[in-house]
Write a structure and sequence with these properties.
This protein folds into 3 domains: about 60 residues, no CATH class; about 70 residues, Arc Repressor Mutant, subunit A, CATH 1.10.10; about 180 residues, Beta-Lactamase (2-Layer Sandwich). It is α+β, with helices and mostly antiparallel strands. The N and C termini lie far apart (about 85 Å). Helix 6 crosses helix 7.
């Protein structure tokens, strides 16, 4: 018998009815029969009552999927467990097991199994006296690590690119600089607004949506000198809609806070309308403003219109990414 034939016989053991060369090899190497390991998909191998497969699918059907589909399906038990963390994240106080489980939509027994693992990992902490659960130290470290890495302007550029392509409006980003609200990013629509604005431009506090937004949400200690100077200049003009008195300014700023956005109609540039929405950071402070503008007649200037709604939603998502919670502003 050749070496190749002996190896083939070892890997493929002969049937009991087989004879000849294969029978002789089996007698020489009786200990070589390979025992198959138990299937990892059998019911006996599972110790958790929760399945990692999508509902209605058994393990065999999942294995039949291609690699990309299995990657998309994820691990269901992790997603289920994170419902508990989501509840704790949005609850300002520590919670009893029954309340936490109820809010997460699971039984207390099931919730407890997840919490035991989260406790071991430090994601959750438990008060030894009351038994209540709260986010743990590792959850804090995760949050701090995220905040240290996040770049608000970079995230805003990505988000605004999608919004510009979807709505076909000119968009931009403004931050507070040493001279006032400053444009740091600009993306034109397919119908440029010819706004004559460029990177580094400082927007007026009272005559632009960007300026009104920063005036509404920044402390007056920062904005006061610029506002006073522009109020004096506005009193000398007779024909535009810029606020001219402190009372008129306060009414305009109250409108900004009420709608969660600043709006101007042809104030800075004739026939150009604009919105600016606030993005807040983890401390509840104004981090940047998102700008959208366009020509009169082609730009939806309604407070509840498509542009304002989309820009507010974009700002809300970015604020969340920066760690902002509505409670942070009291």
């Amino acid at each position: 018998m050749t070496i190749r034939e002996m190896y083939s016989t070892m890997v493929n053991p002969p049937d009991s009815n087989a004879g000849g060369r294969d029978s002789r090899a089996a007698a020489v190497f009786p200990h070589r029969r390979l025992a198959m390991p138990p299937s990892t998909h059998t019911a006996s191998a599972r110790t958790d009552t929760d399945t990692d497969n999508p509902p209605g699918e058994d393990a065999a059907s999942v294995d039949a999927d291609d690699g990309d589909e299995k990657q998309r399906s994820g691990i269901q038990s992790i997603e289920v467990g994170f419902r508990l963390l989501d509840v704790l994240t949005n609850e300002p106080r520590a919670m009893m097991l029954r309340d936490l489980a109820q809010r997460a939509g699971m039984s207390p027994a099931k919730a407890h199994r997840y919490l035991v693992s989260f406790l071991r990992l430090g994601v959750v902490a438990q008060d030894p006296l009351s038994g209540r659960y709260e986010l743990g130290g590792f959850a804090l470290q995760l949050g701090l690590a995220r905040l240290a890495r996040v770049d608000g302007v970079k995230l805003a550029r990505i988000a605004l690119a999608e919004l510009r392509d979807r709505l076909d409006v000119t968009v931009g980003i403004a931050v507070w600089g040493n001279q006032g609200p400053t444009v740091v990013h600009w993306m034109e629509s397919s119908y440029p607004a010819k706004a004559a604005l460029k990177l580094g431009d400082v927007m007026p506090m009272l005559g632009s949506a960007t300026g009104l937004l920063f005036a509404a949400y920044l402390p007056r200690s920062k904005t006061g000198p610029m506002i006073e100077r522009e109020l004096q200049d506005a009193r000398q003009r007779a024909s535009d809609a810029t606020p001219r008195t402190p009372d008129a300014l306060e009414r305009a700023l109250a409108e900004v806070r009420e709608h969660g956005a600043a709006r101007v109609e042809g104030m800075l540039l004739p026939t150009i309308h604009a919105f600016c929405t606030p993005v807040f950071d983890a401390s509840g402070d104004l981090a940047l403003g998102l700008i959208a503008l366009g020509h009169e007649g082609a730009f939806d200037i309604r407070w509840d219109g498509e542009v304002a709604t989309a820009l507010r939603e974009c700002a809300r998502k970015l604020s969340y990414e920066l760690g902002y919670s509505p409670d942070a502003r009291g």
